[in-house]
Design a protein that fits this description.
114 residues, c-terminal domain of poly(a) binding protein, 0% strand
Length: 114
């Protein structure tokens, strides 16, 4: 009896990988083994960096809040401590946006916590 292989599924699996690597450079786009390795590495980076992106944005927001707070004579840590003490519940994303795009509103918040 001849050996039975599921060529349809194998081809579909390879085709799926090559479709995902469309646009890659050189053999990474059309040689299955190279494309598979490139895709696995790329997906690993994508998974890692979706989490890293959150850290980077939080760091950016903290820098912007710190810059805005220092203009009014407070450091970031003192400002955030006073916010918590006054029970003002604005997250860092909103505070950073106010500090950068609406300095008057941010100044009002700083005056409220002083």
């Amino acid at each position: 009896m001849p050996r039975s292989v599921n060529a349809v599924a194998s081809r579909a699996r390879r085709k799926k990988v090559l479709k995902q690597t469309k646009g890659y450079f050189g053999r990474r786009k059309n040689v299955y083994t190279v494309a598979k390795n490139a895709l696995e590495k790329g997906q690993g980076y994508a998974y890692r960096d979706r989490r890293q992106k959150k850290r980077n944005f939080r760091a950016l927001w903290i820098q912007r809040i710190n810059a805005g707070a220092r203009e009014h004579g407070l450091s970031y840590s003192v400002f955030m401590g006073k916010l918590k003490g006054k029970d003002i519940q604005l997250n860092r994303k909103v505070l950073a946006d106010l500090a950068m795009n609406n300095p008057d509103a941010f100044k009002a918040i700083v005056q409220a916590v002083k």
